[in-house]
Amino acid sequence: MIRLAIAELREDTRLWVGPFLVAIISAAFVYLAAVYWWTLGTPEGAALIESLGSTVDEARAGSYVVYVSTAVPAIAVLGTGAAATITALSTRIARWRLAGASPSQIRRAITVQVLLVNAVGAVAGIIVASPFCQSAVDLLVRMVTREDRSFPVANAIPAALLAIVGATLVSYFASFIPARRAARISAVHAVRDETEATVTMPVSRWIVAGFAVLFLLQQVIVTIGATLTLGSDSIGGSSAATLSMMTGLAVLAIIVALAPVLVPQFIRLWTAILPARRLPAWTLARFFATGQPRRTATAVMPIAVGLALYGILFGIITTWQDALTRGGITATLNSLDTYVMLTPAAAISIAGSIASVLLSTRARTRDAAALRVAGASPRTLIGIAFAEATAYALAATVLGLGIAAASVATTAFMLTAGGLPAAPLLDLRQMGVLALVATVALLTVLLVPALSAVRRNPRDALAAL
Questions:
Q1: Over 60: is that where the pLDDT of 173 sits?
Q2: S-S: 318 plus which of 142, 261, 399, 427, CB 3.0-4.6 Å?
Q3: Count of beta carbons in the 10 Å neighbourhood of residue 195
Q4: Contacts 24+ apart (CB under 8 A), 42-48
Q5: pLDDT confidence band for 195 (50 / 70 / 90)
Q6: In the predicted model, what is the mean pLDDT of the chain?
């Protein structure tokens, strides 16, 4: 089965480009955290950190923050990407079953594929991250000690081995459920033609959404109850930040659970304002964006989650800082911890959306070639890519803004109840930068099938697919 797994990887590498990209980014952040952790363990590093009034164990907390903020989104994105890859490979897996492969053999083959992709991606991520070791170590030291000092970086070979082992464990846990799902694909699937339903929401997602709604109601009750029963002296900024974050995460959980239904309908609603006759590229992009609910949801939601997390945490800091300034308090809140915690999650979320779009490159290339045969101009095909990237990015941005707004509104409400003059504020700069990067990334991967159809003869492109 190992030879079969390697042969399948070589057969269609496009299906694994997305997970490979996520593996590179994850391994890069894990490697930088490991270099920092290993540097503090050397005699020189320990002496320097103790001279700044801290201990090695306290300073190493920064690496744990990077580990967690990298591993959690990486497992989620790799798991989703691997599941989408399994869906794309379902017919091929069914043919394996027709050829006599057992479920356990298929499970092992998929696991081997994920581990191989991750191993190569981990090595590539370490190579990419190597020039940034010194900057990462100095940044994490500054985050822990609040001192701007340069630390000599220790030997990076043990850190590289640790990064490879950590990335392998992350990929194994991420492939656990998709590999077992692949093993349940029957041989009948090879001769069955399935069409995706307009609404793709299994019962399990409705149940998760229901629990998320109950959790949100609980948070609202707790927030109102806290302001009514506790005195203004008992409601501090930390309490407001905690309740606000939990409220935002509850709203985020609801939207993620309802994404296959909510996201396409949301795109359909706001894109209807533009005239169809004057903008054929926009109309076709709207059709592609709303015609495949799962494909659209998996392209939009990773970016929406990254934007929501940025908006929630930086919005809480901005609202809290503004309330302190209005109240005549000169304290300055530190946002460096937030940058360190959210940067891996933001990078992995964008990579997750890119991975989702790359999985549909073959289908998009076929659609673009069919449009060329039907008479669409190259300008129209490129316009479709621009319009679809805009639709995805705007949908993710609006959803992220809505989630963050619910969180900062809770922050302002709690701080006002605590005696500080607070108004809900969003840090649009942070969200804007992330939204711009996500838009450029989506446009880049969506232009690939359009440009392929433009450069090739349409009939040859269709025959090749």
A1: yes
A2: 427
A3: 5
A4: 42/154, 44/152, 45/151, 45/152, 45/154, 48/149, 48/151
A5: very low
A6: 77
Biggest CA-to-CA distance, the chain: 75
CB burial class (10 A; 0-12, 13-18, 19+) of residue 311? buried
Q: Tokens for 15, please give them.
A: 């299906």
Question: Is residue 137 a contact partner of residue 34, using CB atoms and an 8 Å limit?
Answer: no
| CA distance linking residue 212 with residue 205, whole number of Å | 10
In tens, the pLDDT along 288-328 reads 888 777 778 888 888 888 888 888 888 888 888 888 887 77
Question: How confident is the model over 349-398, as pLDDT tens digits?
Answer: 888 888 888 877 777 877 887 887 777 788 888 888 888 888 898 989 99
Complete DSSP assignment for 240-289: HHHHHHHHHHHHHHHHHHTHHHHHHHHHHHHHTTS-TTT-HHHHHHHHHH
Residue keyed to tokens 């593996």: 23
* 8 A C-beta contact, residue 364 and residue 449: yes
Instruction: Count other Cβ atoms within 10 Å, centred on residue 239.
Output: 17
Token pair recorded at residue 328: 């005549």
CA distances from 397 to 54, 390, 409 (A): 40, 10, 18
Instruction: State the Cα–Cα distance between residues 274 and 126, nearest whole angstrom.
Output: 46
Rounded to 10 deg, the angle between the 103-129 and 90-98 helix axes is: 140
Give whichever of 50-54, 111-115, 246-250, 416-420 has the largest mean pLDDT.
246-250
- Residue 458 and residue 174: Cα distance in Å, rounded? 38
Angle at 320 (CA atoms; ends 319, 324), nearest 5 degrees: 120
Contacting residues for 290 by C-beta, under 8 A, at least 6 apart: 264, 265, 267, 268, 296
- Could you report the per-residue pLDDT of 98-114, keeping only the tens digit for each? 777 777 877 777 777 77
Please report where in the chains the tokens 């696991």 appear, as a residue: 111
The owner of tokens 């159809």 is 453
- Residue 456 is given by DSSP the state S
Digit-coded pLDDT (tens) for 341-357: 778 888 888 888 888 88
- Sequence-separated (6 or more) residues with CB below 8 Å from residue 204: none
Domain spans in the chain, listed from the N-terminal domain onward: 2-191, 203-464
Residue 423 neighbours by CB under 8 Å, 6+ apart: 319, 322, 323, 412
